[in-house]
Amino acid sequence: MKQNYKTHIFYGYWVVAACFAIQGIGIGTLISFGVFYKPMISEFGWTRASLSGASSIAFLLLGAFGICVGRLNDRFGPRVIMIVSGGLLGVGYSLMSQVQTLWQVYLFFGVITGIGLSTIDIIALSTTARWFVAKRGTMTGFVKVGTGAGQMTIPLAASLFITTYGWRTTYFCYGIFVPAALIAASLLLRRDPGQMGLLPDGTAQTPDNEIDPDQGLTPAQAMRTLQFWALCLINMLMLSCLLTTMLHIVPHAIDIGLPAIKAAGALSMMGGVSMLGRFVTGMAIDRIGNKKSMIICFLIMIGSFLWVLMARELWMLYLFAAVYGLAHGGLFTVISPMVAEFFGIGSHGALFGLVAFCGTIGAALGPFLAGHIFDVTSSYQLVFILLTGVAAVALILTTFLKPAFVS
Protein backbone atom coordinates (compact mmCIF):
# COMPACT_ATOMS: atom_id res chain seq x y z
CA MET A 1 0.00 0.00 0.00
CA LYS A 2 1.30 3.44 -0.90
CA GLN A 3 1.86 5.84 1.96
CA ASN A 4 0.80 9.46 1.95
CA TYR A 5 3.55 11.79 3.11
CA LYS A 6 2.10 15.08 4.24
CA THR A 7 4.81 17.58 4.92
CA HIS A 8 5.11 21.31 4.44
CA ILE A 9 8.03 20.81 2.03
CA PHE A 10 7.46 18.77 -1.12
CA TYR A 11 9.74 15.75 -0.85
CA GLY A 12 10.89 16.28 -4.43
CA TYR A 13 13.00 19.18 -3.20
CA TRP A 14 14.90 16.84 -0.87
CA VAL A 15 15.45 14.54 -3.85
CA VAL A 16 16.79 17.50 -5.84
CA ALA A 17 19.12 18.45 -2.98
CA ALA A 18 20.50 14.90 -2.89
CA CYS A 19 20.95 14.90 -6.67
CA PHE A 20 22.72 18.29 -6.41
CA ALA A 21 25.25 16.74 -4.02
CA ILE A 22 25.69 13.62 -6.17
CA GLN A 23 26.42 15.73 -9.24
CA GLY A 24 28.86 18.03 -7.47
CA ILE A 25 30.90 15.29 -5.81
CA GLY A 26 30.89 12.81 -8.69
CA ILE A 27 31.61 15.19 -11.56
CA GLY A 28 33.89 17.47 -9.53
CA THR A 29 36.27 14.64 -8.65
CA LEU A 30 36.13 13.26 -12.20
CA ILE A 31 36.98 16.58 -13.85
CA SER A 32 39.82 17.24 -11.42
CA PHE A 33 41.74 14.42 -13.15
CA GLY A 34 43.22 17.12 -15.40
CA VAL A 35 44.81 18.74 -12.33
CA PHE A 36 46.75 15.53 -11.69
CA TYR A 37 48.32 15.49 -15.18
CA LYS A 38 51.39 17.59 -14.46
CA PRO A 39 52.52 15.95 -11.19
CA MET A 40 51.97 12.44 -12.54
CA ILE A 41 53.77 13.20 -15.81
CA SER A 42 56.60 14.79 -13.80
CA GLU A 43 56.98 11.67 -11.64
CA PHE A 44 56.56 8.98 -14.31
CA GLY A 45 57.37 10.67 -17.63
CA TRP A 46 54.13 9.61 -19.33
CA THR A 47 52.67 11.54 -22.26
CA ARG A 48 49.44 13.51 -22.10
CA ALA A 49 47.88 11.22 -24.68
CA SER A 50 48.58 8.17 -22.49
CA LEU A 51 46.98 9.78 -19.42
CA SER A 52 44.08 11.02 -21.54
CA GLY A 53 43.58 7.42 -22.61
CA ALA A 54 42.74 6.50 -19.01
CA SER A 55 40.02 9.14 -18.89
CA SER A 56 38.78 7.94 -22.27
CA ILE A 57 38.32 4.42 -20.89
CA ALA A 58 36.53 5.89 -17.86
CA PHE A 59 34.08 7.78 -20.06
CA LEU A 60 33.42 4.81 -22.32
CA LEU A 61 32.64 2.54 -19.36
CA LEU A 62 30.70 5.34 -17.69
CA GLY A 63 28.45 5.48 -20.75
CA ALA A 64 28.22 1.73 -21.35
CA PHE A 65 27.28 0.92 -17.77
CA GLY A 66 25.00 3.96 -17.74
CA ILE A 67 22.65 2.09 -20.08
CA CYS A 68 22.31 -0.69 -17.49
CA VAL A 69 21.99 1.86 -14.68
CA GLY A 70 19.17 3.61 -16.54
CA ARG A 71 17.20 0.38 -16.98
CA LEU A 72 17.76 -0.61 -13.34
CA ASN A 73 16.66 2.81 -12.16
CA ASP A 74 13.47 2.64 -14.25
CA ARG A 75 12.66 -0.68 -12.63
CA PHE A 76 14.04 -0.65 -9.07
CA GLY A 77 14.83 2.95 -8.17
CA PRO A 78 18.07 4.79 -7.37
CA ARG A 79 19.02 4.19 -3.73
CA VAL A 80 20.80 0.83 -3.75
CA ILE A 81 22.43 1.63 -7.10
CA MET A 82 24.01 4.79 -5.67
CA ILE A 83 25.28 2.99 -2.57
CA VAL A 84 27.11 0.44 -4.74
CA SER A 85 28.43 3.26 -6.92
CA GLY A 86 29.84 5.14 -3.94
CA GLY A 87 31.66 2.02 -2.78
CA LEU A 88 33.25 1.48 -6.19
CA LEU A 89 34.47 5.08 -6.34
CA GLY A 90 35.99 4.75 -2.89
CA VAL A 91 37.93 1.69 -4.02
CA GLY A 92 39.04 3.27 -7.31
CA TYR A 93 40.29 6.54 -5.82
CA SER A 94 42.03 4.79 -2.91
CA LEU A 95 43.91 2.54 -5.32
CA MET A 96 44.93 5.57 -7.40
CA SER A 97 47.00 6.73 -4.43
CA GLN A 98 49.15 3.58 -4.84
CA VAL A 99 49.77 3.80 -8.61
CA GLN A 100 53.23 2.79 -9.88
CA THR A 101 52.61 1.91 -13.54
CA LEU A 102 50.42 3.22 -16.35
CA TRP A 103 48.30 0.06 -16.59
CA GLN A 104 47.28 0.63 -12.98
CA VAL A 105 45.96 4.08 -13.87
CA TYR A 106 43.92 2.51 -16.68
CA LEU A 107 42.53 -0.13 -14.30
CA PHE A 108 41.97 1.95 -11.18
CA PHE A 109 40.78 5.19 -12.78
CA GLY A 110 39.67 4.03 -16.22
CA VAL A 111 37.79 0.85 -15.23
CA ILE A 112 36.84 0.94 -11.54
CA THR A 113 36.18 4.68 -11.29
CA GLY A 114 34.54 4.71 -14.72
CA ILE A 115 32.02 2.06 -13.67
CA GLY A 116 31.41 3.84 -10.37
CA LEU A 117 30.74 7.14 -12.12
CA SER A 118 28.16 5.58 -14.48
CA THR A 119 25.41 6.42 -11.97
CA ILE A 120 26.16 10.11 -11.43
CA ASP A 121 24.26 11.65 -14.35
CA ILE A 122 21.70 8.91 -14.98
CA ILE A 123 20.46 8.58 -11.41
CA ALA A 124 20.44 12.30 -10.60
CA LEU A 125 18.85 13.55 -13.82
CA SER A 126 16.41 10.72 -14.49
CA THR A 127 15.14 10.81 -10.91
CA THR A 128 14.70 14.59 -11.09
CA ALA A 129 12.80 14.26 -14.39
CA ARG A 130 10.33 11.87 -12.75
CA TRP A 131 9.66 14.17 -9.79
CA PHE A 132 8.93 17.31 -11.83
CA VAL A 133 7.05 18.23 -15.02
CA ALA A 134 6.08 21.93 -14.92
CA LYS A 135 9.34 22.74 -13.10
CA ARG A 136 11.45 20.07 -14.79
CA GLY A 137 13.81 22.50 -16.50
CA THR A 138 14.33 24.66 -13.42
CA MET A 139 14.89 21.69 -11.12
CA THR A 140 17.24 20.02 -13.62
CA GLY A 141 19.12 23.29 -13.83
CA PHE A 142 19.43 23.41 -10.05
CA VAL A 143 20.72 19.82 -9.95
CA LYS A 144 23.27 20.67 -12.63
CA VAL A 145 24.34 23.70 -10.59
CA GLY A 146 25.74 21.01 -8.30
CA THR A 147 28.05 19.96 -11.12
CA GLY A 148 29.28 23.52 -11.46
CA ALA A 149 29.79 23.81 -7.71
CA GLY A 150 31.87 20.64 -7.74
CA GLN A 151 33.83 21.76 -10.78
CA MET A 152 34.50 25.16 -9.20
CA THR A 153 35.66 23.88 -5.81
CA ILE A 154 37.08 20.37 -6.12
CA PRO A 155 39.78 20.94 -8.80
CA LEU A 156 41.03 24.03 -6.99
CA ALA A 157 41.03 22.17 -3.66
CA ALA A 158 42.81 19.24 -5.31
CA SER A 159 45.45 21.58 -6.73
CA LEU A 160 46.07 23.05 -3.28
CA PHE A 161 46.20 19.60 -1.68
CA ILE A 162 48.62 18.36 -4.36
CA THR A 163 50.89 21.35 -3.81
CA THR A 164 50.87 20.82 -0.03
CA TYR A 165 50.58 17.06 0.46
CA GLY A 166 51.20 15.48 -2.96
CA TRP A 167 48.93 13.83 -5.48
CA ARG A 168 48.92 10.43 -3.74
CA THR A 169 47.57 11.79 -0.47
CA THR A 170 44.98 13.77 -2.41
CA TYR A 171 43.65 10.64 -4.09
CA PHE A 172 43.62 8.81 -0.73
CA CYS A 173 41.43 11.60 0.68
CA TYR A 174 39.13 11.20 -2.35
CA GLY A 175 38.81 7.51 -1.47
CA ILE A 176 37.40 8.40 1.95
CA PHE A 177 35.34 11.51 1.21
CA VAL A 178 33.63 10.50 -2.03
CA PRO A 179 31.91 7.25 -0.92
CA ALA A 180 30.87 8.70 2.45
CA ALA A 181 29.20 11.71 0.82
CA LEU A 182 27.52 9.80 -2.02
CA ILE A 183 26.11 7.09 0.24
CA ALA A 184 24.72 9.74 2.61
CA ALA A 185 23.01 11.54 -0.29
CA SER A 186 21.59 8.30 -1.71
CA LEU A 187 19.54 7.68 1.44
CA LEU A 188 17.25 10.59 0.46
CA LEU A 189 16.45 9.26 -3.01
CA ARG A 190 13.09 7.82 -4.13
CA ARG A 191 12.32 6.61 -7.67
CA ASP A 192 9.23 8.78 -8.27
CA PRO A 193 6.53 10.72 -6.36
CA GLY A 194 4.02 7.90 -6.85
CA GLN A 195 5.91 5.88 -4.23
CA MET A 196 4.97 8.56 -1.71
CA GLY A 197 1.36 9.15 -2.75
CA LEU A 198 2.21 12.31 -4.68
CA LEU A 199 2.19 13.61 -8.22
CA PRO A 200 5.07 15.48 -9.89
CA ASP A 201 5.61 19.07 -8.74
CA GLY A 202 3.99 18.40 -5.34
CA THR A 203 0.32 17.78 -6.09
CA ALA A 204 -1.37 15.34 -3.70
CA GLN A 205 -2.50 12.21 -5.53
CA THR A 206 -6.23 11.36 -5.63
CA PRO A 207 -8.30 8.88 -7.70
CA ASP A 208 -9.38 11.80 -9.94
CA ASN A 209 -5.94 13.08 -10.91
CA GLU A 210 -3.81 9.95 -10.83
CA ILE A 211 -1.59 9.76 -13.92
CA ASP A 212 0.48 7.04 -15.50
CA PRO A 213 4.13 7.57 -14.46
CA ASP A 214 5.26 5.29 -17.28
CA GLN A 215 3.84 7.08 -20.32
CA GLY A 216 6.12 7.50 -23.33
CA LEU A 217 7.91 5.54 -26.00
CA THR A 218 9.66 2.28 -25.17
CA PRO A 219 13.36 2.03 -26.00
CA ALA A 220 12.51 -0.10 -29.06
CA GLN A 221 10.00 2.50 -30.31
CA ALA A 222 12.36 5.42 -29.70
CA MET A 223 15.25 3.74 -31.48
CA ARG A 224 13.11 3.45 -34.61
CA THR A 225 12.91 7.25 -34.86
CA LEU A 226 15.36 9.54 -36.62
CA GLN A 227 15.05 12.03 -33.76
CA PHE A 228 16.57 9.61 -31.28
CA TRP A 229 19.70 8.96 -33.31
CA ALA A 230 20.04 12.64 -34.18
CA LEU A 231 19.98 13.48 -30.47
CA CYS A 232 22.56 10.76 -29.80
CA LEU A 233 24.87 12.24 -32.44
CA ILE A 234 24.40 15.77 -31.10
CA ASN A 235 25.26 14.60 -27.59
CA MET A 236 28.34 12.79 -28.88
CA LEU A 237 29.61 15.93 -30.65
CA MET A 238 28.67 18.11 -27.69
CA LEU A 239 30.46 15.96 -25.10
CA SER A 240 33.58 15.76 -27.24
CA CYS A 241 33.79 19.56 -27.01
CA LEU A 242 32.88 19.86 -23.34
CA LEU A 243 35.16 17.15 -21.96
CA THR A 244 38.11 18.07 -24.17
CA THR A 245 37.91 21.62 -22.91
CA MET A 246 37.59 20.63 -19.26
CA LEU A 247 40.45 18.15 -19.27
CA HIS A 248 42.91 20.18 -21.38
CA ILE A 249 42.28 23.79 -20.38
CA VAL A 250 44.61 23.58 -17.34
CA PRO A 251 47.56 22.10 -19.29
CA HIS A 252 46.89 24.68 -22.05
CA ALA A 253 46.94 27.53 -19.54
CA ILE A 254 50.23 26.30 -18.07
CA ASP A 255 51.70 25.97 -21.57
CA ILE A 256 51.01 29.64 -22.34
CA GLY A 257 52.92 30.63 -19.20
CA LEU A 258 50.39 30.76 -16.35
CA PRO A 259 51.26 29.39 -12.88
CA ALA A 260 49.59 26.08 -11.99
CA ILE A 261 47.27 27.58 -9.34
CA LYS A 262 46.06 30.35 -11.68
CA ALA A 263 45.61 27.78 -14.44
CA ALA A 264 43.43 25.68 -12.12
CA GLY A 265 41.60 28.91 -11.32
CA ALA A 266 40.46 29.12 -14.95
CA LEU A 267 38.87 25.68 -14.59
CA SER A 268 37.27 26.75 -11.33
CA MET A 269 35.91 29.93 -12.93
CA MET A 270 34.50 27.82 -15.73
CA GLY A 271 32.72 25.73 -13.15
CA GLY A 272 31.52 28.74 -11.19
CA VAL A 273 30.04 30.52 -14.20
CA SER A 274 28.58 27.25 -15.45
CA MET A 275 26.40 27.22 -12.32
CA LEU A 276 24.75 30.40 -13.59
CA GLY A 277 24.49 28.86 -17.05
CA ARG A 278 22.81 25.74 -15.67
CA PHE A 279 20.28 27.62 -13.58
CA VAL A 280 19.43 30.20 -16.27
CA THR A 281 19.15 27.49 -18.91
CA GLY A 282 16.88 25.45 -16.63
CA MET A 283 14.51 28.39 -16.28
CA ALA A 284 14.75 29.08 -20.02
CA ILE A 285 13.75 25.49 -20.79
CA ASP A 286 10.49 25.97 -18.88
CA ARG A 287 9.80 29.16 -20.86
CA ILE A 288 11.19 28.85 -24.41
CA GLY A 289 11.73 25.08 -24.64
CA ASN A 290 14.68 22.74 -24.91
CA LYS A 291 15.51 23.24 -28.57
CA LYS A 292 15.85 27.03 -28.47
CA SER A 293 17.85 26.80 -25.24
CA MET A 294 20.28 24.34 -26.83
CA ILE A 295 20.74 26.49 -29.94
CA ILE A 296 21.62 29.54 -27.82
CA CYS A 297 24.15 27.52 -25.83
CA PHE A 298 25.88 26.24 -28.97
CA LEU A 299 26.17 29.78 -30.34
CA ILE A 300 27.81 30.97 -27.12
CA MET A 301 30.23 28.02 -27.11
CA ILE A 302 31.32 28.62 -30.71
CA GLY A 303 32.01 32.27 -29.92
CA SER A 304 34.12 31.30 -26.89
CA PHE A 305 36.24 28.86 -28.93
CA LEU A 306 36.99 31.59 -31.46
CA TRP A 307 38.10 33.83 -28.59
CA VAL A 308 40.38 31.28 -26.89
CA LEU A 309 42.34 30.94 -30.15
CA MET A 310 43.57 34.49 -29.47
CA ALA A 311 43.90 34.26 -25.67
CA ARG A 312 47.49 34.60 -24.46
CA GLU A 313 47.10 36.54 -21.21
CA LEU A 314 45.45 35.68 -17.89
CA TRP A 315 42.48 38.03 -18.29
CA MET A 316 41.80 36.72 -21.80
CA LEU A 317 41.81 33.12 -20.61
CA TYR A 318 39.54 33.97 -17.67
CA LEU A 319 37.14 35.80 -20.01
CA PHE A 320 37.03 32.67 -22.17
CA ALA A 321 36.32 30.58 -19.06
CA ALA A 322 33.46 32.90 -18.08
CA VAL A 323 31.76 32.96 -21.49
CA TYR A 324 32.36 29.30 -22.22
CA GLY A 325 31.09 28.40 -18.74
CA LEU A 326 27.62 29.72 -19.61
CA ALA A 327 27.35 27.39 -22.60
CA HIS A 328 29.02 24.53 -20.78
CA GLY A 329 26.50 24.57 -17.96
CA GLY A 330 23.53 25.06 -20.26
CA LEU A 331 24.36 22.19 -22.60
CA PHE A 332 24.78 19.73 -19.73
CA THR A 333 21.40 20.86 -18.37
CA VAL A 334 19.28 20.58 -21.50
CA ILE A 335 19.85 16.93 -22.50
CA SER A 336 17.78 15.14 -19.83
CA PRO A 337 14.67 17.36 -20.18
CA MET A 338 14.96 17.05 -23.96
CA VAL A 339 14.84 13.25 -23.74
CA ALA A 340 11.74 13.54 -21.53
CA GLU A 341 10.08 16.03 -23.92
CA PHE A 342 10.87 14.12 -27.11
CA PHE A 343 10.21 10.54 -25.93
CA GLY A 344 8.17 10.69 -22.70
CA ILE A 345 9.09 9.71 -19.16
CA GLY A 346 8.21 5.99 -19.04
CA SER A 347 11.63 4.74 -20.18
CA HIS A 348 13.55 7.92 -19.46
CA GLY A 349 16.35 6.19 -17.57
CA ALA A 350 17.03 3.68 -20.34
CA LEU A 351 16.74 6.24 -23.16
CA PHE A 352 18.79 8.85 -21.34
CA GLY A 353 21.35 6.14 -20.64
CA LEU A 354 21.61 5.37 -24.37
CA VAL A 355 21.91 9.05 -25.29
CA ALA A 356 24.49 9.53 -22.54
CA PHE A 357 26.45 6.53 -23.78
CA CYS A 358 26.74 8.10 -27.23
CA GLY A 359 27.90 11.25 -25.45
CA THR A 360 30.61 9.35 -23.65
CA ILE A 361 31.98 8.10 -26.98
CA GLY A 362 32.63 11.73 -27.82
CA ALA A 363 33.88 12.35 -24.27
CA ALA A 364 36.33 9.49 -24.67
CA LEU A 365 37.58 10.32 -28.16
CA GLY A 366 37.79 14.09 -27.79
CA PRO A 367 40.33 14.36 -24.94
CA PHE A 368 42.42 11.49 -26.32
CA LEU A 369 42.65 13.03 -29.80
CA ALA A 370 43.39 16.43 -28.27
CA GLY A 371 46.26 14.94 -26.29
CA HIS A 372 47.59 13.24 -29.41
CA ILE A 373 47.35 16.46 -31.43
CA PHE A 374 49.29 18.29 -28.72
CA ASP A 375 51.96 15.60 -28.60
CA VAL A 376 52.42 15.98 -32.38
CA THR A 377 52.11 19.77 -32.72
CA SER A 378 53.12 20.98 -29.22
CA SER A 379 50.11 23.31 -29.34
CA TYR A 380 46.36 23.34 -28.68
CA GLN A 381 45.58 25.74 -31.56
CA LEU A 382 44.43 23.01 -33.94
CA VAL A 383 42.41 21.43 -31.13
CA PHE A 384 40.32 24.56 -30.59
CA ILE A 385 39.84 25.04 -34.35
CA LEU A 386 38.48 21.50 -34.62
CA LEU A 387 36.25 22.01 -31.56
CA THR A 388 34.73 25.07 -33.24
CA GLY A 389 33.84 23.00 -36.30
CA VAL A 390 32.40 20.14 -34.23
CA ALA A 391 30.20 22.56 -32.28
CA ALA A 392 28.97 24.12 -35.54
CA VAL A 393 27.88 20.70 -36.88
CA ALA A 394 26.00 19.99 -33.63
CA LEU A 395 24.28 23.37 -33.90
CA ILE A 396 23.08 22.64 -37.43
CA LEU A 397 21.69 19.23 -36.40
CA THR A 398 19.87 20.76 -33.44
CA THR A 399 17.88 23.10 -35.68
CA PHE A 400 16.19 20.09 -37.33
CA LEU A 401 15.10 18.30 -34.13
CA LYS A 402 11.37 17.62 -33.46
CA PRO A 403 9.60 15.67 -30.65
CA ALA A 404 8.75 12.04 -31.40
CA PHE A 405 6.17 11.63 -28.58
CA VAL A 406 3.13 13.79 -27.72
CA SER A 407 1.47 13.09 -24.36
Map the helices and strands.
Blueprint: H1 11-31, H2 37-44, H3 48-76, H4 79-96, H5 102-116, H6 120-131, H7 136-165, H8 167-186, H9 219-222, H10 226-255, H11 260-288, H12 290-308, H13 314-343, H14 348-377, H15 381-398
Helix pairs in contact: 1-6, 1-7, 1-8, 3-5, 3-6, 3-14, 4-5, 4-8, 6-7, 6-14, 7-8, 7-11, 7-13, 10-11, 10-13, 10-14, 10-15, 11-12, 11-13, 12-13, 12-15, 13-14
Folded structure, characterized:
With 407 residues, this protein is mostly helical. The chain has one domain (11-194, 213-398): Growth Hormone, Chain: A (Up-down Bundle). The protein is 77% helix and 0% strand. It has helices at 11-31, 37-44, 48-76, 79-96, 102-116, 120-131, 136-165, 167-186, 219-222, 226-255, 260-288, 290-308, 314-343, 348-377, 381-398.
What string gives the helices and strands in order? HHHHHHHHHHHHHHH
C-alpha geometry: globular
The top level CATH class name: Mainly Alpha
**Count of strand segments:** 0
Helix count from the secondary structure assignment: 15
Beta-strand proportion: under 5%
Gist of the model:
This protein is mostly helical. The protein is built from 15 helices and no strands. The chain has a single domain, classed as Growth Hormone, Chain: A.
Name its key features:
mainly alpha; single chain; 407 residues; globular; Growth Hormone, Chain: A; disordered N terminus; 15 helices
